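> @MW can you paste both from yesterday?
MW: sure, first one:
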Amino acid sequence: MARLGSAVTTKTAAVAAAGALVVTGAVGAGVWALGGGPQLAVVQRSVSVSVAAGGEQSAVAACKSHEKALGGGYAVTGTGFATSSLFVGDAWLAAAYNPDAAPATLTSYALCVNAKPEFLGGVDWSEQAHAFHDRGNKVTATGGALIHDLTTGGPFAEAAHHASASPSCPGDFTSLGTEFRAGRTVTGRGVAPVPLDSLTTKSVFAGDAKAVPYASLNPGTRLSSGTFPLHSSENIVRQTRIEDPQPPEANYAVTLRPVCVRLKDVSVATAKVSVAAGGTADAAVSCPKGKLVVGGGFQFPAENETGAAEAPTRFFGDGWLYAPTDAPAAGGEPSGAKVKAWHVTGRNQQKAGLDYSNSVWIEHSDRETLTGNGYFDTHGRGPDDQELRVAPVPDGQSLVATAVCAKIDAEPTEPAKAPAPPSVSRPELPHALDPGPGVPDGTGTASPSPSSSAPTPGTSPSASASVPPGTTPAPGSPGTPTKGGPSRPGTPSQSGAPTRQQPQAPAVSIRQPSSGGQLRRGCEESFAATARTRPDDRPLTDPQYTSWRITGPNGPVTLGAGASGRFLVPLLPDGTYELVFTATDPAAGLTGSAEVSVRIVGCIR
């Protein structure tokens, strides 16, 4: 293009002016762009925050005013995993938990398009994925005996059948992805966060335009290592006994909601990489030419998870499989970059070579009847133990990255033009003074005015003002003629100009919660505030100019954006904190804030 620009002729410039090309720089400078107005594009808008050791943090990324958020994603640099990822108004919130002793960084991404596609309204949080789950092909009765445990008659009986969830979009709406938020399976029990091992969108059939979301959790917790009596070892590989109480990780759940949008020509593209045990790996998947990346996700498919009778469920004991990144952009890309691929970083915390903790052993004294006590562990407990299934941790596990690709049937939008600068009334100054007598060309010596009290034509009356006693007029100042040309016009008087009030910081107040009110950590609470510009008293509601923060022990924690909404309360210890709402006047660049003291109490413990 630089070569083309250097050879621009008069004829070429005329064609450009006719609309075939638009010259964005001077002719011959080599700066060209295709014409035709704005083009559809998907970009990522991102915000990063620090996540303290052992804590949880949230971050909110908002789109520009002329853009629409299609969804979003998250990235965790260091240890940790997402606990919530959802819309807050038209912005995207991600929250992450850091179980390690070192701090981590959370980045929230909003996937923004410069168009207004049609979203399905009124979609509710309809399904839960539970961390507590047993093998899918479990046998609960054998030899006339029934296994009574938490999966048959206990509080987790129903949860054991819902380890994953697939909320769907009705009609011709398709799912771009899935919102999820932290919760618990059984009320009244302790809960601790666990990572997702699947948050993906799949095609119903190959080449089908209908895509469905899928999510599952990986508790990384041994189900049971206790023994229980068996009348027969038949089908032992499909028997387990879930003892109570389970660790708090087993009580963790996420509630799901699909992001449903009406799109054209939808397909799902995938890319697979192997993640070594104890390591991490990156995967990126792009869309075919002519389609935009409008969503995405990841999945760790367990080898042979739904295969033969002896197939394992997912390994629960020696590590986690999860994605610390589910992002529409590569790490380090600046906010606002165009999305060309969906990027995922997967982490595998399993230890290569160890056995699965739910390997089944049987302790018995009579090999012919094969009866005794069954238990689940990584090694035998006695010399006569019979190993029925050995499942060593593999050297690596597959990570599948998914991208939802589509065409958006909507007109592209343009950024709103910046507001015109405030007008200041100023009398016009003359372009030049008439030369004095005897100076026809304005270059000779000016003749003194016949009367120092009479104003010179073309000057303000204030130009003849007397100089205060004891001062020396500066050259060219009012009343002081300059040699070699006409005298400089004096500064016109402003006495007759209308007075304009100077802009001030916005007037801001918090309506909800009230001072001293309670917020439940780990839960969504309602927030409301007002912000109005001064002196013209216009409301400020655009999320990109407003924010909510709580000042925690490790610094400010961003809750959300917008004058009102429901935001996730961070997992801060019980105590009193300052809640701050901030609003910025985009025209004046001035910022105002209000704060109230609130008390954070338990919701998820």
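MW: second:
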Amino acid sequence: MTTTARRRILWTFVGVGIFILLTAAAALWTLSRAQIARDSLESAAEVAATFPALLEAGDPAASAAAADAFAADARTARDATSDPVWRLAEFVPWLGSNLTAVREVSEIADDLAVSAISPLVAIADDIDIARLGFTEGRLDLTPLVDAAPVVEKANDAFQRSVDTVRDLPEPTVPLVAGAVDRLTEVLLPAATAVDALDRAAALFPAMLGADGPRTYLLLMLNNAEARTYGGIPGAGAVITVEDGRVGIERQLSSGDYVIEKESVIPLSPSTIALFADLPGRYIQNTMSPLPFAEGASAAAALLERSTGIAVDGVIAIDTTSLGYLLEATGPLDFGSVVLDSGNAVDILLSVAYREIQEPTVLDAFFSAVTLRLFESVTSGQVGLPNLLTSVERALDEHRLHVWSAHPEEQERIEGSELETILLPDDDATRVGVFFNDLTGAKLDYYADPNVTLEVDECGATPTARVTVNWTNTIPADAATSLPSYVNGFGLTDTPIGETLTRLTVVGPQGWTLQDYSFDDARPGVQSAQYDDRTALQTEFVTTAGGSHTLVVEFAGTVASDPERVWDLVSTPLARSTNVEFISASCDG
């Protein structure tokens, strides 16, 4: 072997040795930095988890200290994952995706610390909910107006974090996976909360008249006669607001609206397919369409044609929610009856109908309840935190909805619980079950439906089976024991004391209708498309104390994520519908 050849081999070994040493050094360096990032992210997650309690306690100093601690942890994690060696290591197969996830989460945390958490903590005391409230019928809007720019910037940062998290590679190395998962578990719910705060800060001042007077139609939905969004609009009111001061301009009943020969607004093809043009002609049917904006705009148009009053928006709240508000306001004494949170549903949806036979007197009673409750809420004697707890419960149960006639405001409302009963499938796979009474009666007070959702995601094509058991507890002698007003005056061919119900089942976005049965048969049904959702609808008569069962099966087009959350929403009736989830076991 020549000297040149020996030198070449020697230098080759030297080169390989240097490469191994450098690789080992880089690996050790990256490992040490990963440990630093892991510890910092876990610490940041623990600190972030304390923010809700600290802010609720109203301790600015403790909140600021926590924000500083979170920022320090986030900066440490970002510094540990931003050097050239780390970025180079991200190209290593298998390991690289883990390092990328850690780096991106560290960048998210640091961005949130600077752009969101510290600024929000700085103004938290100024928008302390406990400080807000009605004073002599007026709600001070100044704190929300002042906070709006800061909240908007913070929300932008949180939504950036959500977008990044959704695209993150799934970490598989235990060293870092736990820290990444823990921080994202804390941040995602926080992003939802900040988004809601941003909507409120942007919407409420203008909607409550900060920029000029506003007028709204308030619809009180009667759950005893079901519609998709809870019930028919019964009692209601025209509300005026200006600079946070709220007043009632006029009280309404369904009799104040003219029945139109044609729809007062263009209805969507899906609404026409399922409900014909009735939602655009009768105020009682405006709460049937699945798009709340469609029904609300029809109600506003019907009001203007009937009374000449134009409104800036529509607020719909159901009777059951009034009971929640009474938890905050306390009982209301009407002399012959004391209305409280425990008896409100029974009195307003059952007892009043049995004891007050004259419809005009009944309307007057409902109007009096609406006025007294409104006066109690705006009196300044009820703390806003208690009211917000009641409102939050109503929102959670899909009993409160809002539509704005101002496009820029409606755009902010869209995609939220305020806007629709069936949210987009962004954070969950959703199914809807909705009821509409066709009897013209008040017998849905006795409705007792049960819904089961069975999900099988084990195969290449996932399926979802929805079983709806519609049962009522109507008295056997309802035809003679209940007033005509409750039984519907015999307005339809349905026998007195029985109900004619329209049941609509809506599948997840992008899923297709696979099969259905009604009481083990396959009668004719209606179907329609709501955007990319398939809806199936049927109608049936139920005798007093009777029941029926509808089964609908949907199929997905591709395998779904087994970790994805499922959600089933249904028409809010007098009492909550019992819902059961069953997930197929994929073992074996």
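> thanks! Confidence is low (pLDDT under 50) at residues 9-30.
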